[in-house]
């Protein structure tokens, strides 16, 4: 590492706009800043910039241990007011040990090669008693993670261990990656990792890098109950998945409430793959594009309505003129990058193009509950049960409102 801090040593600047640490080369470096058996210290108030998000595997800030025999109690860690960018691996990585009374706040991470934040509660000696407690993350912004790896378990924020997350924004999720992953645990003797069980996530926004790519906004593994609330996802889906590596925890899915998914083109807006997942007052909204004179994208006589994503990839597409559905082939034709109208628009017209969502909710696990919420009219299926042996309860879910 370029700079190593031990317990009780702080590194504090006047603010990320006033103080910048630039790392020109990372050959032979695991990280720019290493925090070893760290605790009772503060890191913040500066920008940390690496040499690029590809071509290296260095972390921005890395928390780890000095000896495998140490207890690994990372206590009293405070990170705040940071801007981290251009590293080939994690922006911030907590790789080993427990975390106690730890806070991350007002942190922006941009253009990194792997996860924005990779937070593991992990031990090499199978010590299942070391835990995560008092961990809070708030005001976290992650933009464009996964430049180097671009697949698999890469996420804007990956969490293991109990934590409280609030005011989180992850945008620019690449194809086949995730915005936030609430991770499962592992129970092997030499590789014990705590799951994200009993964690709380609230007030979050997640957005895919582009339309029509298979991006997973939020992935929750059923390695213990957790609470998810008050979120919005655009162009990315929510999945709950049954755990496979957490034998010490019940196979319980999360409770998700007050979450909206807009423009899920890569699958169902909500896929309930973990037993006992609960959805309360959640919505699935199809992607809509508006054209009118006061928006500055429609003029008299205009016959072309451009779209930011290939329109032909949408299996369900509607074009509405002044709230009336037009007929394909007669009133318009579909091209790769927009809609060609058969006749010119009037200056007073309002056009809406809808790229419909196939399924609002897909239930693939038993004992799931869907209560309240709804989907708009541009869905092929509101609720899909993958097989007849799945049990569940749906009450008050309003389709086609």
From TrEMBL:
Source organism superkingdom: Bacteria
**What is this protein identified as?**
Right-handed parallel beta-helix repeat-containing protein
């Amino acid at each position: 590492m370029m700079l190593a801090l031990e317990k009780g040593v702080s590194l504090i600047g006047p603010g990320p706009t006033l103080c910048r640490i630039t790392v020109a080369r990372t050959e032979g470096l695991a990280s720019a800043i290493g925090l070893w058996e760290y605790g009772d210290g503060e890191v913040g108030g500066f920008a940390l910039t690496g040499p690029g998000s590809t071509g290296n595997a260095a972390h921005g800030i890395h928390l780890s241990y000095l000896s495998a025999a140490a207890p690994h109690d990372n206590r009293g860690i405070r990170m705040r007011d940071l801007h981290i960018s251009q590293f080939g691996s994690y922006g911030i990585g907590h790789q080993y040990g427990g975390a106690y009374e730890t806070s991350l706040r007002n942190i922006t991470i941009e253009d990194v090669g792997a996860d924005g934040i990779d937070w593991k509660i992990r031990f090499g000696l199978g010590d299942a008693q070391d835990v995560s407690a008092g961990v809070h993350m708030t005001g976290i912004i992650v933009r464009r993670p996964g430049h180097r790896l671009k697949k698999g378990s890469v996420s804007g924020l990956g969490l293991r261990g109990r934590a409280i997350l609030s005011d989180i924004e992850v945008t620019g999720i690449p194809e086949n990656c995730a915005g936030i992953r609430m991770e499962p645990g592992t129970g092997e003797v030499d590789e014990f990792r705590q799951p994200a069980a009993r964690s709380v996530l609230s007030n979050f926004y997640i957005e895919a890098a582009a339309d029509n790519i298979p991006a997973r906004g939020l992935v929750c593994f059923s390695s213990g109950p957790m609470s998810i609330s008050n979120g919005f996802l655009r162009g990315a889906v929510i999945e709950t998945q049954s755990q496979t590596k957490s034998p010490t925890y019940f196979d319980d899915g999360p409770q998700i409430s007050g979450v909206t998914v807009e423009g899920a083109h890569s699958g169902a807006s909500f896929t309930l793959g973990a037993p006992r997942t609960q959805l309360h007052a959640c919505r699935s909204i199809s992607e809509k594009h508006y054209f009118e004179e006061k928006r500055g994208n429609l003029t008299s006589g205009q016959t072309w309505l451009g779209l930011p994503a290939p329109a032909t990839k949408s299996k369900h597409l509607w074009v509405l003129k002044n709230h009336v559905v037009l007929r394909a082939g007669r009133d318009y034709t579909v091209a790769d990058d927009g809609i060609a109208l058969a006749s010119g628009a009037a200056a007073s017209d309002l056009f809406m193009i809808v790229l419909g969502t196939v399924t609002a909710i897909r239930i693939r696990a038993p004992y799931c509950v869907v209560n309240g919420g709804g989907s708009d009219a541009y869905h092929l299926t509101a609720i899909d049960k993958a097989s007849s042996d799945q049990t569940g309860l749906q009450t008050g879910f309003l389709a086609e409102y």
